Amino acid sequence: MKKLLKNGNVFVSKNKKFEICDILLEDDKIKEIGKELSDSEAETIDCNGYHILPGLIDMHVHLRDPGYTAKEDIISGAKAAAKGGFSSICCMPNTNPVLDNTSAINYVTRKAGDLDKTRIFVIGAMSKGLEGKEIANIGSMVNAGVIGISDDGNCIQNTKVALNVVRYASTYDLPIIVHAEDYTLSGEGQVNYGKMSTKLGVKGIPSLSEEIIVSREIMLANVTNSHIHFSHVSTHRAVELIRRAKADGVNITAEVTPHHLLLTEEECAEFDTNKKMKPPLRTEKDRQALISGLQDGTIDVIATDHAPHTDYEKELEFLKAPFGVIGLESAFPALYTNLVKNGEFQLEELVAKMSENPAQIIKQDLGLIAEGKTADLAVVNLDESFLFSENYIASKSHNSPFLGKTFFGKPKFTLCKGKIIWQD
Ligand code: DOR
Ligand code: ZN
């Protein structure tokens, strides 16, 4: 099976820039990139006016399957991902049962493998039941194919257990993905600690809750030489800690979410539960530091932390509503519209943070548009705007902080292994 994508503005990885050209796909591979290609056997797709990016990769998604399938399941999550331009996603293990054993992991892999949709990689738990007490059987999960380990949503509080996980995992070549939160400091906090928590009269989650654990994990990575990846970095001091540790040669990487890049705690003033997540939206100073961290390479990756919750959970009062927001379908358009279109950030850089860089961290030969590489592509129309509304969303849940916004950069086609898995 051949496909010929004609006259797209292609992000050619070799040159790290956009060029108007054609791409010939054969089966699941990119066969040729060049000008005025032709092939009588190929199905031709006119990409004139469109940008062709490497299929996006989201290394932080909660698919809720097994156990919480009213929020999302593997099929609906994969569909939402494809609609957002993602050819690959990684799913987090905070399901029920937890993905801390081979049979649970095999369940996800099998169900995901049956789909003609976005590719799904599995992240296994660090601790049994995500309880932070006993280390999970990481070796058997690695054999079952996990690409990383994480207790995301939770954070191991006991430093001895955290050290054992990092030591044990260092024998395998995979990232240890850390949700940094000190519970003694975050406690019952609902929003960022400071101006907004005072204004709303609710308990706050201080920046220090994140920074204490980031500091601890930097030390653990340093003594064990394991690769620690920080999920959803949200504070300016965490960015600075990571910057300095990287300069010292510590084996760490970091990610930031679109919502922490684009929104601040001010959004919580109206008690909108779609602005409630962990870590919380922080201050403008933090937001600016996250953008600088992305620009100077301190932060490697943008990942959504797509965390679906049902309408009836998010309709609860602010204190009772669960933490988390969806992000698969808004990520690229929201970032393109609010960071690239206004000149704050280069499109090439945005693309790398959402494709090549996560591919490197999860050690997959993906995220590049080059001859011989896997035909994972996201075809977008940067000039086409659309209303991001509940109707637009393919996810089972609608808890987006961006509802009602108009975005440019609409995904038109998404391809995974040479197959069209989404078409506008
Ligand atoms: O807000 C969040 N929701 N943060 C997390 O780390 C976990 C996630 C969830 O699973 O709902
Ligand atoms: Zn998460």
Describe the structure.
The chain is of the alpha/beta class. It folds into 2 domains: 2-51 and 374-384 and 407-423, Urease, subunit C, domain 1; 56-361, TIM Barrel (Alpha-Beta Barrel), CATH 3.20.20. The protein is built from 14 helices and 18 strands. The protein has helices at 74-83, 102-113, 138-143, 159-169, 183-186, 195-200, 207-224, 236-247, 258-262, 284-295, 311-314, 331-340, 347-353, 356-361, and strands spanning 2-12, 17-26, 29-34, 43-46, 51-54, 56-61, 86-91, 119-124, 148-150, 176-178, 191-192, 204-205, 228-230, 252-256, 301-302, 377-388, 405-416, 419-423. Strands 1, 2, 3, 4, 5, 16, 17 and 18 form an 8-stranded mixed beta sheet that branches. An 8-stranded parallel beta sheet has the order 6-7-8-9-10-13-14-15. Strands 11-12 form a two-stranded parallel sheet. β9 (148-150), α4 and β10 form a beta-alpha-beta unit. α4 (159-169) crosses α7 (207-224), α7 (207-224) runs parallel beside α8 and α8 (236-247) packs parallel to α10 (284-295). The protein is globular and about 65 Å long. The chain starts with a strand and ends with a strand. (4S)-2,6-dioxohexahydropyrimidine-4-carboxylic acid binds next to loops.
Layout of strands and helices, then pairs:
Elements: E1 2-12, E2 17-26, E3 29-34, E4 43-46, E5 51-54, E6 56-61, H1 74-83, E7 86-91, H2 102-113, E8 119-124, H3 138-143, E9 148-150, H4 159-169, E10 176-178, H5 183-186, E11 191-192, H6 195-200, E12 204-205, H7 207-224, E13 228-230, H8 236-247, E14 252-256, H9 258-262, H10 284-295, E15 301-302, H11 311-314, H12 331-340, H13 347-353, H14 356-361, E16 377-388, E17 405-416, E18 419-423
Parallel strand pairs: 1-4, 1-5, 6-7, 7-8, 8-9, 9-10, 10-13, 11-12, 13-14, 14-15
Antiparallel strand pairs: 1-2, 2-3, 5-16, 16-17, 17-18
Bound molecules: (4S)-2,6-dioxohexahydropyrimidine-4-carboxylic acid and zinc ion (ZN).
Residues 60, 62, 92, 152-153, 305, 307 line the site of zinc ion.
